[in-house]
Amino acid sequence: MKSLSRILSAAGLVLGLALAGTPAGAQTASPAALASAKEILAMKNASAMYAAAVPNLVEQTKEQLIQNNLNYQKDLNEVSVMVAQKLAGRESEIGEGMAKIYAGDFTEQELKDLVVFYKSPLGQKLLSTEPKAIQESVTFMNQWAQQFAQIVNGEFRAEMRKRGKQI
């Protein structure tokens, strides 16, 4: 289930960036702004989010094709290796798109200021602790949602009992 979630996340990210283009109303970013945006993304290790996008999308496509063409499983397995090799490296387009988004959302000076911040001790601490904080936050939200869903379910059942209906 986790791998499917990662595949879908990567597919959604790729599709979103492909459809998004340049943000509405965004100015054309200067080369310096793009360079700063790329530096920020590198410091944040953003490429880890999409590093496996190409192989995951190739695998997902292969699996879908196999479901509808079981007789071609051997060929599709062979072709998937060729397609993955042919398209290897295209995930860098995601990084380019992300840099353009950052450069469209922040001014050149703001991006330079962010680079300075991320190089500061506090910025370094943020870069090192933020992934853990985000993961722990997601875990907390999931646990909260499970517990709260039980409360919501109990409320539904109580209200339905008042109406003489057991669910």
Sum up the structure in keywords:
single chain; 167 residues; mainly alpha; 2 domains; 8 helices; 81% helix; disordered N terminus
Q: What does this protein look like?
A:
This protein is mainly α and 167 residues long. The chain has 2 domains: 119 residues, no CATH class; 47 residues. Helices cover 81% and strands 0% of the residues. The protein has 8 helices and no strands. Helix 1 crosses helix 4 and helix 2 crosses helix 6. The longest helix has 42 residues. It is flat, with a radius of gyration of 22 Å. The N terminus is likely disordered.
Question: What order do the helices and strands come in, and which of them pair?
Answer:
Blueprint: H1 2-20, H2 31-43, H3 47-50, H4 53-68, H5 73-87, H6 92-105, H7 108-119, H8 121-162
Helix pairs in contact: 1-4, 2-6, 2-7, 4-5, 7-8
Short description:
This protein is mostly helical.
Instruction: Return the average pLDDT rounded to an integer.
Output: 88
**How much is the radius of gyration in Å?**
22 Å
Beta percentage is under 5%
What gap, in angstroms, lies between the N and C termini?
30 Å
Structural class: mainly alpha
Largest sheet: none
Described by the principal axes of the CA atoms, the overall outline is flat
- Topology as a string of helices (H) and strands (E): HHHHHHHH
